[in-house]
Amino acid sequence: MPARAITEGLFEIHDDGTIALIGGYSPSSARFHFPLLDTCPYTGAADVERVMLSADATLWAWTAVTAAPPGYAGPVPFGFGVVELVHEQLRVITRLTEPDPSRLEFGQPMRLVAETLPLENGETVTTWAFESASS
Amino acid sequence: MNTAQVKIAGVGIHPFGRFDGLTNTTMGVHAVRAALAEAGEPRFDAAFCGTAYGGVASGHKVLGALARTGMPIVDVEAGCASGGAALQLAAGAIRAGQYDCVLVFGVEKMPKGIIRSSFFEPWREEAGLAATPAYFALRAQRLLREAGLTKEHLAEVVVKNRRHGVHNPNAMFRKEVTADAVLASRLVCDPLHLWMLCSPNEGAAAIVLRRATDADRAAVTLASARLRSHLPGSVLGEATPLSGIDDSDITPPSALAAHDAYEEAGIGPADVDVVECQDTDAARELLAYQELGLCEPGEQAKLLASGATTLGGTLPVNPSGGLLSKGEPLGASALGQVIELVHQLRGEAGPRQVEGARVGLAHTVGRGANACCVVVTK
């Protein structure tokens, strides 16, 4: 059984271990957002629908975090970046499974994966990350 | 638009650095005393205190220690722009006729290392998505790509500001560095190395503002102080959301604040003689060049190579040494910039002096997002 989600409401964990990000879509603004909010962050409209976001993306910006930031108990270095979801045209801040920046390229295809992380209290949780889809 | 001219009657600063054993109150008292003395020990009608980490009633503690209470004392939190926000509130109140004289000050003792902020939910820290320098790095990577810049340009900014900072007795770092040494310093988040990032630290600064009278004619004028927040959409903006949309047509908060400050002062970027800008990291200064209208987008390399932004150039940027030399005590840093400009306009900056400076621009931007631009003239 997959480890519990790092927090509720960000993504669904399926029995096979795969995950899908939960976003919002406002028909009146025709825009997606993540994480899901009660109102559209671009217009304030209240007509937000809960949607599952696509798992396919392209890489827009990336780096690696070389020292553990406060409150973080996972491995370092770890990849960190922005991917653009292909269908939604939404740029998402995300962990990247690739910790070596020199192995990544602008615009390369990426896909969503589940990742497990230790917490400071020793517990293990599931979070989301993007990995290179060409690997 | 301005119903009254606002003059800077006095300034005072406590050095920026690390001072174990000194409290915000002690540092604040030092800065406020100096500013009040310079202004001729005036009675002030209100006080605004910028601080982000100072805690409840930081301003009251400082003025309580000086037995100068009774007037309204308001703490102002606007992230890195806290001091600038306090300045805008004070100037606005004077212009509106509410007050004749207002004390503005800022105090801060920043936690060491990567800033831990209640801004981020605990899970975001646990996921590693609250690493502030990593956001700076992503923004730097995009800027390098879009403006045709390299890591060497980032190192040049550090070399420039650290060279300026040698002459600033209130700066934390007062040694010159070489580009090679900057590039050899520890890689924090590619493309940013340790020395390309400013250090959160401690300090205090104070400014006395007064409605202009005949006696104040020679004093430096606070021509404008304007705060703006972010517009929705930008994933790498200082609002640090978890997602965003294509932001190519969304004006960033620094450009909004600059526009307002220029308009209120009745000037444009070409009129500015000296700039103090937010160099949280070396790339942030280069981004500010275009946001403040100092160059066209993508022209940063040319501006830097021309030497214009170095002391002795046509438009020196961060003659104080910038945050890269001074460090950044959030509540005080914006006021520290304005104090540097006041010294420049008065001709008191010694080896850092920008000859003939008559118009200065200060810029801060950070979490919120909050961006503030201040124009001072003489």
Taking strands numbered 1, 2, ... along the chain, how are they ordered across the largest sheet of chain A? 5-6-7-9-8
Mean pLDDT of chain B: 96
CATH architect. name of chain B? 3-Layer(aba) Sandwich
- Rounded to the nearest angstrom, the radius of gyration of chain B is 19 Å
Give the ordered list of helices and strands of chain A: EEEEEEEEE
CATH topology label of chain B? Peroxisomal Thiolase, Chain A, domain 1
* Distance between the first and last residues' Cα of chain A: 26 Å
Task: Describe this structure in a few short sentences.
Chain A is an all-beta fold and 135 residues long. Chain A contains no helices and nine strands. Chains A and B meet through strand 5, strand 6 and strand 7 of A and helix 4, helix 5, strand 5 and strand 9 of B.
Which features does this protein show?
heterodimer; A: 135 residues; mainly beta; five-stranded mixed β-barrel; four-stranded antiparallel beta sheet; globular; B: 378 residues; alpha/beta; Peroxisomal Thiolase, Chain A, domain 1; five-stranded mixed beta sheet; four-stranded mixed beta sheet
Structure description:
The complex is a heterodimer of chains A (135) and B (378). Chain A contains no helices and nine strands. With 135 residues, chain A is an all-beta fold. The radius of gyration of chain A is 15 Å and the shape is globular. The model of chain A has no long low-confidence stretch (mean pLDDT 96). Chain B is α/β, with parallel strands linked by helices. Chain B has a single domain, classed as 3-Layer(aba) Sandwich (Peroxisomal Thiolase, Chain A, domain 1). A five-stranded mixed beta sheet of chain B has the order 1-7-4-2-3, sandwiched between helices. A four-stranded mixed beta sheet of chain B has the order 8-12-11-10, with helices on both faces. Chain B has a two-stranded antiparallel sheet with strand order 5-6. The interface between A and B is large, with 42 and 40 residues. Strand 7 of chain A pairs antiparallel with strand 9 of chain B, so a sheet runs across the interface.
